[in-house]
Amino acid sequence: MSQFYAEIPTSARKTVPTARGHKSTGISTLACSASGFRIRTTLWTDEQTGEDMYRVVMEPHHYNGASTVGHAVLAEGKCSDWT
User: Fold this and answer.
1) How many CB atoms sit inside 10 A of residue 44's CB?
2) How many helices (H) and strands (E) does the chain have?
3) How far apart are CA 58 and CA 49, in angstroms?
4) Is the pLDDT of residue 75 over 60?
5) What is the pLDDT of residue 34?
6) In whole angstroms, what is the distance from residue 81 CA to residue 59 CA?
7) Torsion over CA of 13, 20, 2 and 77, rounded to 10 degrees?
8) 67: domain range?
9) How many domains does the chain contain in total?
10) What Å distances lie between residue 19 and 10, 34, 55, 62, 68, CA to CA?
11) 25 membership: H or E segment, kind and range
12) Which among 4, 14, 38, 53 could disulfide-bond with 21, CB atoms 3.0 to 4.6 Å apart, if both were Cys?
């Protein structure tokens, strides 16, 4: 059974693409802007605590010749903090 599930509910596609991730693999998504930055969202299970974790990072990508600017962690924590 999958531990994580991702979908793209709004896009130019007629269908909604989906993906599954397991405790052993986690799951990661990328949403890129033509301005040269992207948002990476990652979900995984911490091996030591068994808790599901999340991280949202803004980082450069090379679509528009983005510089080698570092990344910024926008949010991170335990998924259980949302309950």
Assistant:
1) 20
2) 0, 6
3) 26
4) yes
5) 85
6) 25
7) -110
8) 4-82
9) 1
10) 15, 24, 18, 24, 29
11) none
12) 4
Q: Which pLDDT tens digit goes with each residue over 25-70?
A: 999 999 998 888 899 999 999 999 999 999 999 998 875 555 556 7
Are the CB atoms for 59 and 67 separated by under 8 Å?
no
pTM above 0.90, yes or no: no
For residues 6-36, one letter each, b for 16 or more C-beta atoms within 10 angstroms of the residue's C-beta and e for the rest, the string is eeeeeeeeeeeeeeebeeeebbbeeebeeee
* Strand bridging mode 27-32 / 18-21: unpaired
HSE, side-chain direction, 13 A CA sphere, residue 21: 18
Using alpha carbons only, what angle is made at residue 41 by residues 12 and 38, rounded to the nearest 5 degrees?
Answer: 60
